[in-house]
Design a protein that fits this description.
Four copies of one chain form a homotetramer. By secondary structure, chain A is of the alpha/beta class. Chain A has eleven helices and 15 strands. Chain A folds into two domains: about 130 residues, NAD(P)-binding Rossmann-like Domain (Rossmann fold, 3-Layer(aba) Sandwich); about 190 residues, Dihydrodipicolinate Reductase, domain 2 (2-Layer Sandwich). Chain A starts with a strand and ends in a 13-residue tail after the last strand.
Chain lengths: ~350, ~350, ~350, ~350
Amino acid sequence: MSEKLQVAVAGIGRMGMRHARHFANFTPRAELIAVCSPVQAELDAAKAEFGNIRLYKDYEQMLEQEKTLQAVVVASATTVHAEQAIKAIERGFHVLCEKPISTSPEISQSVVDAYNTSIKKFPNQKVICGFSRRFDASYRDAYRRTANGDIGTPSVFRSQTCDKLDPSGFFVAYAEFSGGIFVDCSIHDIDLALWFFGEDSKVKSVTAIGITAVQPDLRKHNDRDNALGIIEFYGGKIAQLYCSRMMAAGQEDCTEIFGTNGKVAVNTQPQLNLVNIYEPTGIRREIPPDYYGRFREAFITEANEFTASCLDNTAPPLRLDSAVRAVTIGCALQESLISGKKIEFEENGKRVEASKL
Amino acid sequence: MSEKLQVAVAGIGRMGMRHARHFANFTPRAELIAVCSPVQAELDAAKAEFGNIRLYKDYEQMLEQEKTLQAVVVASATTVHAEQAIKAIERGFHVLCEKPISTSPEISQSVVDAYNTSIKKFPNQKVICGFSRRFDASYRDAYRRTANGDIGTPSVFRSQTCDKLDPSGFFVAYAEFSGGIFVDCSIHDIDLALWFFGEDSKVKSVTAIGITAVQPDLRKHNDRDNALGIIEFYGGKIAQLYCSRMMAAGQEDCTEIFGTNGKVAVNTQPQLNLVNIYEPTGIRREIPPDYYGRFREAFITEANEFTASCLDNTAPPLRLDSAVRAVTIGCALQESLISGKKIEFEENGKRVEASKL
Amino acid sequence: MSEKLQVAVAGIGRMGMRHARHFANFTPRAELIAVCSPVQAELDAAKAEFGNIRLYKDYEQMLEQEKTLQAVVVASATTVHAEQAIKAIERGFHVLCEKPISTSPEISQSVVDAYNTSIKKFPNQKVICGFSRRFDASYRDAYRRTANGDIGTPSVFRSQTCDKLDPSGFFVAYAEFSGGIFVDCSIHDIDLALWFFGEDSKVKSVTAIGITAVQPDLRKHNDRDNALGIIEFYGGKIAQLYCSRMMAAGQEDCTEIFGTNGKVAVNTQPQLNLVNIYEPTGIRREIPPDYYGRFREAFITEANEFTASCLDNTAPPLRLDSAVRAVTIGCALQESLISGKKIEFEENGKRVEASKL
Amino acid sequence: MSEKLQVAVAGIGRMGMRHARHFANFTPRAELIAVCSPVQAELDAAKAEFGNIRLYKDYEQMLEQEKTLQAVVVASATTVHAEQAIKAIERGFHVLCEKPISTSPEISQSVVDAYNTSIKKFPNQKVICGFSRRFDASYRDAYRRTANGDIGTPSVFRSQTCDKLDPSGFFVAYAEFSGGIFVDCSIHDIDLALWFFGEDSKVKSVTAIGITAVQPDLRKHNDRDNALGIIEFYGGKIAQLYCSRMMAAGQEDCTEIFGTNGKVAVNTQPQLNLVNIYEPTGIRREIPPDYYGRFREAFITEANEFTASCLDNTAPPLRLDSAVRAVTIGCALQESLISGKKIEFEENGKRVEASKL
């Protein structure tokens, strides 16, 4: 048996190919052995790039036939994440599932349930949902300082995930399945809030507002192109979020954690690289055009740490159940965005009924 | 008659003395002729600093006896702003009133009403409320670009007014009369939102949440030390606010205006001056300790432009009625902060009754 | 006799008018009473702006006739700085002379000599040469930290004075009298080096090189548009300079002082104000177009502190003789720039003869 | 025969191990097959880390016995770089030699000569000297803009390589073989100057000065801990350099290229990552502690591009002979630093004899 983790990637569109590259080329302890896609052109492209791998159109066939397979990366369309993840989990494979597990909290929970059942049979099994920012060197530095008490008690959290304007209309079509801007974009910020405030933080209320400044057709899918949300947690912690599809200069993701003794800020001065250009109009720098330009290194770290936890049977780098909590909050924000209502929760997680508000 | 605007300052505590200095020393077209304070020590200090001025313990006496007086700066305690402003307005004096006119929208409106009556008798009379950021060179640069269409349609507004932590407990005592953190701090941000979005922007809803992370005693006065608010305006514009009394490094005031084609950001990288210090712990810069450290130049510009508008009978640099709108929104946010309810408004400005929500 | 310092300005071209404004409008303890210029249009402009002042075409006539005159600001063409300064000094007036006193070290020294003689007769007389950066808040902050030992022993100094490109050819005509780029621009950097390293630092050698990248006609006047210089001081300190007339974005003046335990950097990230503009080409900020855009506040501080030292008979804010040392070093650099030779000095200040090199 | 480039690393001290890792783990098209070191502990460490590789104490033995070997990375002590490189070149291996090839221009040239001879026999052979900055994304961005004409004609170059203070005395011992600070540190800056100004730029003169501010014992080895140099090139281009062993905050490497229409600046605002820390003393960020912290990614790119050029027989990513020019200039600066003399060159590269100066 090989010393390298034997990995297959399901779904090799843009993000799937990136995962394939990270495991094939930048994860020394892993070996990419197979990929699967219903699209022949994607399989051809993978073959051209990776050479000696096996190709499948059918996901279950891959799981059956790859006898040395150990781990599956689920990077297919969001709508099949959960189904594919559960199939791999039930067969005992390690799973790295792209975020979100599902745009539905219930379906997300079903994956957690499947894992909780499966792990009794496969006690070394690792299943994680890929929240890439948890692997980013800057976020980790900020987290380390916060956990170390350098800023006192973290109390206020501000974070934004703002995409570059894409005038092609892509985001309108995408909105049909994305779960909405809070589920698609802010899920990262919500996950960070849970990380910095404590995984077991209980949400008390959420309120959201939004507009369609550049893509009015998003309203067809109950979505917005700019939205603001505020979140109360039990225990005296609050968060504000901004998500957008309208940035001119590029991807603008940043986070601030305000504590009782100080603050850490991540990427509040975005930049593509270390170059400044001095020209008659002033001093200029470019910024990354998309999240991959910002987080490529984090994805590679994710692949390496996931691999190490599988091979060495160590604790996975993050807990699967936090993905459920994040999507639950994201969905509540999305609902508030559309309904215009504040949504409140009891400390046990149950929603306060509207009649009691 | 003198060519210089003859100015008196009412209230010469910390901020009043600064106004006195700005008019006496840095406003070439103005002359400080009198000050008034109920506190003898303050009068002594003013005499020591300004020499040839007249001193009053009684405000009305000053208005009566200063025969050459043309303009009054009201910089007394917020609780008497409106009363003093009205007395000066009714006598035909130009008035520069420190913000807020009042922590009550109704009382604020009564000052506007007094001015609207008085100006029929004194058609050249100028009355403004001192929103200092309107005079800041950076905010003006940002406004000019926005008004010029450089960022497309301004659609999302983010602004924060965050004070340095004062462990003395000052803010607890202060909260009794401040109107609350949204009225005291965020009033500036709200005024900026109205400026950038258009003075006649109509608020549709406000929601706020907050905590007491460092000063639990603020709850005695229905106040908080950190609060987040979101504001919807009719016409597809939204704003998010953060106000705090907990900053470690100094005053952190910043603003971003996101438009459909770009963004302008003001002071998102705060700094005291142009010095960077390289030391074994890294690279460090200091930031202003308080709002005056950040906005001193703006206050001086305010004094000069107010003076010019009085002497030259030109349009005042800002409209008085926007101060009423700002305080109205600030009070609604403060109410939402305490009640936990979202507050909605009809387009005509009337509140939507809770039963209809 | 007036309580305000009675000031006249000689030379009211662009910089002279600025000095006149600083004293008339922004120096509360000073009063501008007269100006002098051979150019009628300049006198007319001053009259229009300042109103109640007296105008002179003849400098000596002004000194004779202004019976209440106390202080003279010499802001005329550099070629007459020394002559006018000496005339005022000999009559016992306080003098603020624009830099440089002269492009010649010998003539500069003659002004110091005149002052040293005059002060015996007028023991309260103040004479300074206006090195504006000494009055800049950022340089002062950096100096305070350095003097306080925060960076250990200051050992290496880097500074640059780089003007925005002026394609009009102005700098070619200007070069005829400017003394050359090291005397005109780098004089400020040299003065700073002497300030940070100690006024009595002894220069050991200078070497310079340069080019004409954009204004080849500068060679007619033995000047260059870009030049680099290095300076050794006795006692183990070194400095590097860059001066230029070629900057695209605006004025780029910055300074770093490297000590044995740290560094202070001034304006290594230049900016016009606190605005950042986000647009499709990236994030942009503007920078000041010229030295006055960068140092206006410093000039005003200079006027106020000069005034205070005259009125209160306190030590002037800087020593006159350091101006001679700065111009001596500047001239040596300019000579090296043209001759291509390294120039060395004995510790007593005498030049090492070429034959001994 | 393997599809992957078969690579051996000679010298597996700190930098050699890094190269080994880059080829073993982060260069998908390469395979690390052997390492060599005279030190058993280093061999043991490599075995522990890389597993299935072969170990050699004798360099020539490795070259003889590794029958599938294709490329050698020379990362041993600088003193044996040239000798080992030549041995590999003569056997027809591809070679990536750490910088500098030698601290002697003549010995450096002998490696170029060996390559020029060898390539007649092995026409596909690639030999490069590892100037890591040429592979850095920021430097490449700056270069691309410069080559594209964005800044007009590049005319003035400023660059510094400044190491963090190491109080252990390491640099004193190291100075015995390093070739001196200009050869060890500034070689990178000189290489960049040749890249940005054009590989065939001819040096006209060099002058250098320096001090020992923190390590006076460096004088035993004719070295300094801080040095400044200026370089004239034929054709109207000039450069200034600063090298130091005294930085408090970390590695401070930065470069500016001033053109007739603009400037590009690389890393003038150094940072470890995207985190800013707000605390009572201000806002702070950390910076990389050493050159590897700054340039790790560049080294990995170097390994990948060297591999690709060997496997695909494409042009190597940089020319070997520029390494000779860089070390020639570095040695001249080092000589000037110690002698105190300016050194001049004819356009054909010959030194102007002192008697003619």
